[in-house]
Amino acid sequence: MKFAILGISHETNTFSVVPATYEEFEKSKLLRRQEILDHYATSDHTIAGYLQGGEELGFDAVPLMHARTGPIGTITKDAYDRLSSEMLGMLADEGPWDGVLIANHGAAVSEEFPDMDAEFTRQVREVVGPDVPVGITLDMHANISKDTVANTDVCIVWRTCPHLDTKLRGRKTAELIYRTALGEIKPVQFIEMPPMLVNIVKQFTGQEPMLGLVDECVAANEIENVLDTSIAEGYPYADVEEMGMSWITITDGDAELAEKTSKDMAASAWTKRIDLNEPVSSISDALKQAEERYVGPKPEGVENFMPTDGSALAAPEKSDHSHLGPIVLMDVGDNIGGGSSADSTHILKVAQEMGIERYLQSLYDPESVEACVDAGVGAELALDVGGKTDDMHGEPIHVVGTVAVIDDGPYEETRPTHGGGRFYDDGQRVIFNTVDGMTILLTSKRSGNTARAQMYSAGINPEDYRVVVAKGVSSPRPAYQPIAAEIILVNSPGVTSADLDTFEFKSRRIPLYPFEEPVYPAE
Q1: CATH 3.40.50.2300 location in the chain
Q2: Res 115 pLDDT > 80
Q3: Which pTM value belongs to this model?
Q4: Bridge partners, 236 (sequence order)
Q5: pLDDT for 174-213, tens place per residue?
Q6: Mapping DSSP to helix (H, G, I), strand (E, B) and coil, where does residue 413 land?
Q7: E strands, 234-391, where?
Q8: Residue 196 has what DSSP assignment?
Q9: CATH number of 2-277
Q10: Per residue in 230-255, is it b (16+ CB within 10 Å) or e — as a string?
Q11: Rounded alpha-carbon distances, angstroms, from residue 336 to 95, 167, 343
């Protein structure tokens, strides 16, 4: 048997001013054939699960082409046309196929297709025909439409946030498509899309209310004749009709059971809709809490519990050292994993005004990197850092300090990471130590903080700091929860702000909780 692997993976922040051009995909991850194997085979990514399925089940997994870029703005028509044309051309030319495995994100928006994932799956189906089983594995932040489900035989979603089960869920998709191709099963899917959101600050699956909802989803998977169950949190920064939470059940030929199971899970979540949208700390409150609660550095080699089996990430395990370590602030408004700028200075500004020392954060600022490189290691200079992408993420902050390190920026992480990544690249980067006790990692590429190796590889030990700012909401948890005394979510401004009322939605469903008070289930 021969299965094709392909996909366009993009989380589109429709409020971002940075378009997802073809060149952005080229700069990030535009891989063909052997390049896909080289990049993903040893990772914990969805594609690694597809490849594992091929090895263990005995089908030939053929990687064609995969395109991915970090979450930024809308995909241009040119980018989608070029990417999809090449991929679909490969799919058409190298068939026939016994199955297709798609690795998309699930929240993609292009200039021409607001529901790009539905359009891509429609085109794949058009190429291979109605009888070839098609499977897709999506990010938990996917905005999934009924069309995407209708265009595929198996639609499976990651169940953990941060995303630690990516390979496992890819492997599950591969197995179900393989069994479908053999004729062992006849999958039937149903998606329930209640009119509700879960705010980005409540999407951590290691704590309530999401923990209980994931547990219910896993338990429903054990119902007789149910092949798989998925819960999608959705992505609130894509202004599209399908934006919001959804539940998918796949059964072996039982459409009524699929519908009932999905609706039961969604109805349970509806009762928690208020808890799923509670606010978090302001910047000043979070920094005050960090100053008050810091006890001391965590002893070398001591870490809190971190699962490596893809299970839902739990809160830190209590131990004799659980209260030690840095206080980690999650910069919600500058969530690079959600399409933000990576150069927000809102928290830095308040921390500077409060005189907080032993403070660590990263900032995307190619201009400041260039100035530091020109000055050289050991140089003392003044810089205006950050706040240069747009007018949503603060003004540049004036700092004075010393260039401590300059390097090229690539690094490798072998610990568990959000999304299963292993190889990263900050671009040329600089460690800048300010005279008022702050350390800023300046990068020339937009980089999140999803791997602690980012800091270690630059010569920084985050364990030694009082306050560490991680740009994200849940994605930095696998990196920083093991060393943190506490994690505090910060309601900072920005293109990924938790205050959804700051955005002008034009295409979302109406009514939709928490913007309105819908009646659900519909009477």
Answers
A1: 2-277
A2: yes
A3: 0.85
A4: none
A5: 999 999 999 999 999 999 999 999 999 999 999 999 999 9
A6: coil
A7: 246-252, 327-331, 359-364, 380-385
A8: B
A9: 3.40.50.2300
A10: bbbbbbbbbbbebbbbbbbbbbbebe
A11: 38, 22, 9
Q: In which residue are the tokens 């990692």 written?
A: 441
Q: Which residues pair with 107 in a beta bridge?
A: 11
- The residues, ordered by sequence, that sit 6+ positions from 457 with a Cβ below 8 Å of its Cβ are 407, 411, 412
DSSP secondary structure letter of residue 281: B
Residue with tokens 């040329």, as numbered in its chain: 428
DSSP for 244-274, please give it: S-EEEEEEES-HHHHHHHHHHHHHHHHTTTT
Q: What is the C-alpha to C-alpha distance for residues 369 and 320, in angstroms, rounded to an integer?
A: 41
Q: How far apart are CA 115 and CA 401, in angstroms?
A: 47
Calculate the alpha carbon distances from 463 to 136, 386, 401 in Å: 39, 24, 22
Nearest to 174 by CA among 50, 62, 64: 50
What are the tokens at 281?
């700390």
Whether 156 contacts 139, CB under 8 Å:
no
pLDDT at residue 308 greater than cutoff 70: no
CA distances from 504 to 19, 236, 239, 335 (A): 18, 12, 9, 19
Angle at 59 between CA 56 and CA 61, to 5 degrees: 100
Residue 450: closest CA among 482, 484, 416, 427: 416
Residue 26: count other Cβ atoms within 10 Å of its Cβ. Answer: 12
Write out the two tokens for 251. Answer: 């059964």
